[in-house]
Amino acid sequence: MSIRPSRAFWLAALLFAALAVPASAQPLSAKAARDLAVLATAYPGLMTATEVDPAGRATVVLNDGTRLAYDDGRAKSPEELLDHPDIKDMLAEPYPLGPVTAEPAQGFSPGRRRVEPMFLALYGHDKQQVTANCRPVSFLGQTMAFNTRYGAADAFARATARLDRLVAADPSLRRHLLPASGGVVWRVIAGTRRLSVHAFAAAVDVSPKGNPYWRNLPRGTNMLATRQAFPVAIVTAFEAEGFIWGGKWSEFDLMHFEYRPELILLARLARGENLPLADIRGLVKAVR
After folding, report:
1. Alpha carbons 67 and 55: distance in angstroms, whole number
2. Residues 235-279 pLDDT 10s
3. CA–CA distance, 88 with 14 (Å, rounded to integer)
4. Burial grade of 282 (CB within 10 A; 0-12, 13-18, 19 or more)
């Protein structure tokens, strides 16, 4: 299920890295330059600066004042990668676009590593702020609140329009989608202290009773047939608008779609699409 970046992609990334910092600073690595340009493209205005120290370590400054290490240099267990990822960790697992062709390797769950302070800066620091940032969006006859910041609600509305057309052509798809649950659900993920993406009103669960969740089945359960039975057209409609599907995770969540345009953009770049990225050179500053 992995996506291998093309040779041309890496050559372009190396060139971008060479241009990404002032001559007085240690250059960002090709991967750091690529990752930060992708974040700037997916979430315009989120980053206000990227500080690079003499050793080339990058600290990203967000528009709410939050400072995040791109790479904190720590070796982490699988649990620590989920609980305390840095930006590099968050973007390291390539999200696989298209149909599911194989059961993912144990622990492979691109998108589950989330830098929580970044999501707070994106969507709101508490339930009250998140709620104030939402607007109602119609979803196949239901209405749910979705976060307006950084294009999330607009992307959800576009995905819904795609699904409306699919369901009109094939009404049997409706049972895979409804009822759906979303809106502002300020809670942590079961068994963790990490906030759910539902807390930020940037995700939707479709037909929760019909689509299984990994904690409800024995660990290591082979779900390939169930993953492949979920309509590819639905997944494609969401992915086209910047959403990832939890059905592609080892710790599967087949009901779950969340807005992660940075991961979709990385996946499209990795398969060789020629996509423009934001120019981050003006954000990069050498520090001592």
Report:
1. 18
2. 999 999 999 999 999 888 899 999 999 999 999 999 999 999 999
3. 17
4. exposed
Query: How far is residue 146's CA from residue 156's CA, in Å, rounded to a whole number?
Result: 8
User: Quick one: pLDDT at residue 10?
Assistant: 47
- Closest C-alpha among 284, 217, 192, 212 to residue 253: 212
Low-confidence ranges of the chain (pLDDT < 70): 1-26, 212, 214-221
**Token code pair at residue 138:** 């119609």
**Rounded to an integer, what distance in angstroms lies between the CA atom of residue 276 and that of residue 269?**
10
* Side chain identity, residue 247: G
Ordered strands of the 243-245 beta sheet? 180-181, 203-206, 256-259, 243-245
For residue 190, the model assigns a pLDDT of 82
In this structure, the number of other CB atoms found within 10 A of the CB of residue 221 comes to: 12
Q: How many helices (H) and strands (E) does the chain have?
A: 10, 10
- Residues constituting the chain: 288
